[in-house]
Amino acid sequence: MEIKGINLIDYKLPDCIVCLKLGDRYSSEYVNNLYKSVRKYCDMDFLCYTDDWEGIDDDVLIVPFKGRIPKEEWTTPENLLHKETSLGWWPAWAKLELFAAPELKNYNRKIFFDLDIVIQNDITPILEYETDWAIIDSSYWKGENWIKDHPKGKAWNSSCIIFKDNEWVYDRYQKNWENFVKEYAGIDDFFNGEHFKPDLLPPWFYSYAKGSKPEHYYESISKKKPYNKYQSDFLICLFHQKPDIHELDSSNILYKLWTA
Fold first, then answer.
1. CA-to-CA distance for 75 and 88, rounded, in angstroms?
2. Does residue 110 fall inside a structural domain?
3. Is 221 domain-assigned?
4. Is pLDDT above 70 for 10?
């Protein structure tokens, strides 16, 4: 497999950064801003798996990629509870395809970032973190009460995934994927329900909508009103729920950091 003339099968490569852009949920601006933010801290290969590369920076390594089912049959995060009217597949499930992507096989560590994040401090600790496979621990903002109320759930988040050669993760998904996408709301639930045991990344992340502590949202006296506040001590802010980053006022510090 070749990307821009580089034969990725012939030799061992160092670490890389990976992102995924499927459909029109996020524009090329999200890819370009993530690329610019990452470039401040490393010169790793930056690969984007996408079905539409128009407008993406020429220095991003493009891997043509499509969803597992026709686009018109994709569901949305908002409709996940209505599985009887959809196949249950949405682009977040495509992250699992990366565990077996041939273009990534010869890289040592693969560091995946969702597009809806803002890098606000030096991410070197993430780039240098040694693990076979790790995802975000969201228990910091969900808390013990959430865990008690969701005995079958895990406080995990896949906005950042670091992994090495773990094709078996994809193999587990591939064997029964049509049922998995109906049974689980997304890959975080899938990892838990199928008893995967990834490492958990240190508390470098927080949620814009839900904060960094249970009292910010899940145990808030304001009855789960979105927190929506910048917190300067973290490395990355997650916009895994509304608002989208581009919807912030241009004077918002997170918007400024995103576009810097």
1. 6
2. yes
3. no
4. no
The boundaries of the domain holding residue 174 are 2-140+150-204
Decide: helix, strand or coil at residue 172. helix
- Please state, in angstroms and rounded to a whole number, the distance separating the CA atoms of residues 53 and 59: 12
pLDDT at 222 exceeding the cut of 80: no
153 CA to centre of own chain: 18
Q: Tokens for 71? A: 């686009």
Residue 133 in any domain: the answer is: yes
pTM recorded for the entire structure: 0.91
More confident residue, 141 or 69: 141
* Other beta carbons less than 10 A from residue 4's beta carbon: 10
CATH number of the CATH domain containing 86:
3.90.550.10
Is 70 exceeded by the pLDDT of residue 4?
no
Per DSSP bridges, beta strands 236-238 and 16-21 are: unpaired
How many domains is the chain partitioned into structurally?
1
Q: Please count the CA atoms within 13 angstroms of the CA of 249 that sit on its side-chain side.
A: 5
pLDDT average, residue stretch 215-233? 90
Share of the chain above pLDDT 90, in %: 65
Residue 245, C-beta contacts closer than 8 angstroms, at least 6 positions apart: 30, 116, 118, 239, 254, 255, 258
What distance in Å separates the CA atoms of residue 46 and residue 19, rounded to the nearest whole number? 8
